[in-house]
């Protein structure tokens, strides 16, 4: 194990009907609240109404920012910042999935930053103060509801980048699995791929003596692999929605990196490049790239892929080389994602090799890409080539 | 899953040399600090010196309370409360194991309570304010370093009772596995039994759809079962100390009850009665009682014991009844604890049946004993009888 700090100030209210806790979290009456959401789905499924009822009960003065994009854009962040300053917002409430939450994290810290918020995303500046915010989760996927990470897209520059800050933890998050009942099949699948990818990124570390946390990661993966097909056959089942929702939050709240080097994250870097250029769903991009990254890396050192194959996919290791075991595990992962309906090649989105050079550059937004294996522009291109068809 | 709240405000600094973080936690210079510890072991092993160096570096004004008992007593809590009031203590620092930390939790809340602190332990009063405190852990066992639970003994009344409060979380805890290198064999074993018992108590719940958390619990048990024999053969091994230390903290920091009914805890209630009368080590009492509680319960409903037997002890279930599988698992647990040198019968402590009636009454300090199976005075006595030899 490496030395580490474990802390997470977010309070999670999990379960059906937990929206009522919003009153307690709002505290005394009269707060000026900015309500942030995406498209109209929360109006169709009743979540908007439930939130508004709680806010009205506390006589909160509510302002709204809607239309946050699936890959939330700097321009939208700036709109939110303007409202916060203009209306002296005291609490921001994100009602939605990871995109809305990521956007709110940026608004929250940006409201107190005088310069261009992109400075913070690009680590030219560090936030020193933030408006408190909470979340009402409506999509199980990114884990943003219990971490301090936010990914923002600068659409004009085709750049999609993550930033983080100790100020970017939600004060509270309300996780009601029934709020995800109406999430359509494809979004549900992308969410499942996304949370599994978060675990996999962390699983591919090189720290020794991490058996408990390794088992925790395998536990999250096994639980999702078990629940996902049942959920897709019965999208309104609260038990399956709950299992997947809690797995998604746990997948990326810091716990699973305790004592490790933090894992690899090259696949995420490459995917950020991909969805910055093509605006495809993050989970779709990951489903295509991750198995190819694994196969690429297993050719050098299959150790962790072998462990995953045996412990998570139940691959029988008798009489096989490590590489063979690893390859069977990678195939099992791809087959599992395919069985859910996730894409498996760039061609599924009509993407060809024509912008690969640009895409490689977009993947190198950070100086270092990858940790399990340090990527070069050549190795990223190799992974993209493997992903074509 | 049941509805639940997940929050834990304690900051954990884990790893060799993390004592240096004490400076950051102390903040600006000049704090009035009460240093609380048990016997002289922290002076012999260098931990006392390391802590004092950090405190001196910040020009803290340090007062001391030493001699906290293995089952910390109300009289000692009262001594600490008096010092806090007398010296206007601003931060309390527990340096030791669960007993010292539990004592500090009581001092911290008791300093602001005008009445007898036993009122709080017996839930006649609720703490409303507490002096902030941190811990430097020197024994992996109770998990008190990351939870809000404290167990105090009223020695004159032979009563040992737990209390908890949202104010009783440590602000920070420093977990340096090398600080546990000098813990002797028997204390190390009791700690291992204690942390495993915490997981087992939580494992014996009756909530459905808890697969991820069930797997987490199995992961903690598997990790301890794997590490313990290696650690006992090599007490100064930092990797094994680290694995056991982190498992002990995770075993009882709230996470493993997320979404469940909280588990059973009858064995703990009975053990509190036992060690209130006989002052035996908590881990020793649990090693004797827990398998007998399991066997007693398995006779009615072996379901969870069967799951444990298969998933943790690798019992082959082919051709066996659930009760047979459960019984083999219980025997495997007892054999494992025996192999570490833990006691297996009350006779090992020279305890006979002469005070069983009194002991049964002590177990009923709370109205309800047990949850997986609600205990009566008769069933508690049955477990004690099974534990005699």
Taken together, the total number of domains of chain A comes to 2
Measured by DSSP, the beta-strand proportion of chain A falls in 5-15%
The DSSP helix count of chain A reads 15
Percent of residues in helices of chain A: 40-55%
Query: Which CATH first-tier class of the largest domain in chain A would you pick?
Result: Mainly Alpha
Q: Looking at CATH, which topology of the largest domain in chain A would you report?
A: Dehydroquinate synthase-like, alpha domain
What's the architecture of the largest domain in chain A in CATH terms?
Up-down Bundle
Radius of gyration of chain A: 20 Å
How many strands of chain A? 8
Protein name (chains A, B): NADH-dependent alcohol dehydrogenase
Pfam families (chains A, B): ADH_Fe_C, Fe-ADH
Domain Fe-containing alcohol dehydrogenase-like C-terminal (chains A, B): 188-387
InterPro entries (chains A, B): ADH_Fe/GldA (IPR001670), ADH_Fe_C (IPR056798), ADH_Fe_CS (IPR018211), BDH-like (IPR044731)
């Amino acid at each position: 194990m490496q030395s580490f700090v474990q802390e997470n100030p977010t309070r999670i209210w999990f379960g059906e009907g937990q929206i009522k806790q919003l009153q307690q979290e709002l505290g005394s009456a009269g707060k000026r609240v900015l309500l942030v959401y995406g498209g109209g789905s929360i109006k169709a499924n009743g979540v908007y109404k439930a939130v508004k009822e709680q806010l009205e009960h506390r006589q909160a003065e509510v302002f709204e920012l809607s239309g946050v994009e699936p890959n939330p854009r700097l321009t939208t962040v700036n709109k939110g910042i303007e409202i916060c300053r203009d209306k002296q917002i005291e609490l921001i409430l994100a009602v939605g999935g990871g995109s809305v939450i990521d956007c709110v994290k940026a608004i929250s810290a940006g409201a107190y930053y005088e310069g261009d918020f992109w400075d913070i995303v690009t680590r030219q500046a560090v936030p020193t103060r933030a408006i408190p915010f909470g979340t009402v989760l409506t999509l199980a996927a990114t884990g943003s509801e219990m971490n301090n990470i936010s990914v923002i897209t600068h659409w004009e520059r085709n750049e999609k980048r993550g930033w983080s800050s100790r100020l970017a933890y939600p004060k509270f998050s309300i996780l009601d699995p029934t709020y995800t009942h109406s999430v359509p099949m494809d979004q549900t699948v992308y969410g499942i791929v996304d949370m599994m990818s978060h675990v996999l990124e962390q699983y591919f570390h090189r720290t020794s003596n991490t058996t408990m946390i390794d088992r925790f990661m395998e536990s999250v993966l096994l639980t999702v692999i078990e629940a996902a097909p049942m959920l897709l056959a019965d999208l309104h089942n609260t038990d399956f929605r709950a299992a997947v929702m809690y797995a998604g939050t746990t997948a990326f709240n810091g716990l699973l990196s305790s004592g490790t080097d933090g894992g690899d994250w090259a696949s995420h870097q490459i995917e950020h490049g991909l969805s910055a250029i093509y605006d495809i769903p993050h989970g779709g991009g990951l489903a295509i790239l991750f198995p190819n990254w694994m196969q690429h890396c297993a050719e050098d050192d299959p150790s962790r892929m072998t462990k995953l194959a045996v412990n998570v996919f139940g691959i029988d290791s008798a009489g096989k080389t490590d590489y063979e075991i690893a390859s069977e595990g990678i195939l099992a992962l791809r087959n599992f994602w395919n069985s859910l309906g996730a894409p498996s090649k760039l061609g599924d989105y009509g993407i060809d090799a024509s912008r690969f050079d640009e895409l490689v550059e977009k993947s190198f937004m950070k100086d270092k890409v990858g940790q399990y294996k340090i990527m070069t522009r050549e190795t990223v291109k190799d992974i993209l080539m493997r992903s074509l068809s």
